[in-house]
């Protein structure tokens, strides 16, 4: 069903491009679409009309491309948490062994809690877990579990939404967002406590043609990484064993 939805989006893209030919053009690195992007609520130029991916996915894709330039993963294995469709396809092409996991979803290889990953030490060469560390009760346990299942020279790509200058850990789960941890700019110290090296990739480090910034307009008060006029940068931490 998902593949049919993506195919339909792809057919609609030329019509959207024609009807919005006066808008600014961008390039989607995920599906190679070139043309105007769709707005998403207050977020300007956010969504690719062909593949449907948003700013953060485009940035993550470019970061992964950068990683793949320096490693040969054709004989390696990856653990993909809460799998996104675009990255699922990419990882299945790139890696010899692909394993997906989630707490509840049915479309994964295994259901488990990231605070207790059911694989032996040194089982994978890469872990990709985007926007999941804000949810477990003990996020440090989850980070340590990601480190545990990685082999020597392994890599963990662990993006988390930054919503404050300083991280706020909640005593009770937020009833709306379900978050336990509202990450700030200091959150990356938690990765540094577990991994040998942590690299921070930001929107501004990659070509502007891909439109990797998030526009929040007047609704971004208190949000870190502002770059001016309602626009905000995004970040992707890459952690090395």
Automatic annotation (TrEMBL):
Which GO molecular function terms does the record list? S-adenosylmethionine-dependent methyltransferase activity
What is the name of this protein? Glycosyltransferase
Originating species: Sedimenticola selenatireducens
The alphabetized UniProt keywords are: Transferase
Report the residue ranges that make up the Methyltransferase type domain in this protein. 111-157
């Amino acid at each position: 069903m998902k593949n049919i939805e993506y195919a339909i989006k792809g057919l609609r893209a030329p019509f959207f491009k024609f009807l919005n030919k006066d808008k600014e053009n961008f390039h989607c690195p995920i599906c190679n679409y070139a043309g105007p992007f769709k707005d998403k609520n207050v977020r300007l130029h956010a969504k690719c009309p062909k593949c449907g991916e948003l700013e953060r996915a485009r940035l993550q894709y470019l970061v992964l491309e950068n990683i793949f330039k320096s490693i040969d993963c054709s004989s390696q294995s990856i653990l993909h948490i809460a799998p996104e469709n675009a990255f699922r396809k990419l990882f299945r092409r790139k890696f010899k062994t692909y394993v997906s996991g989630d707490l509840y979803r049915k479309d994964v290889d295994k259901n488990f809690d990231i605070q207790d990953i059911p694989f032996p030490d040194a089982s994978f060469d890469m872990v990709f877990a985007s926007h999941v560390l804000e949810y477990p009760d003990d996020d440090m346990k989850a980070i340590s579990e990601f480190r545990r299942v990685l082999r020597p020279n392994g890599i963990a790509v662990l993006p988390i939404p930054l919503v404050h200058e300083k991280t706020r850990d909640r005593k009770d789960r937020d009833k709306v967002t379900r978050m336990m941890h509202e990450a700030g700019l200091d959150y990356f110290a938690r990765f540094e406590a577990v991994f040998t090296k942590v690299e921070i990739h930001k929107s501004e480090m990659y070509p502007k043609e891909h439109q990797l910034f998030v526009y929040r307009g007047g609704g971004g008060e208190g949000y870190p990484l502002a770059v001016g006029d309602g626009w905000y940068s995004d970040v992707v931490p890459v952690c090395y064993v």
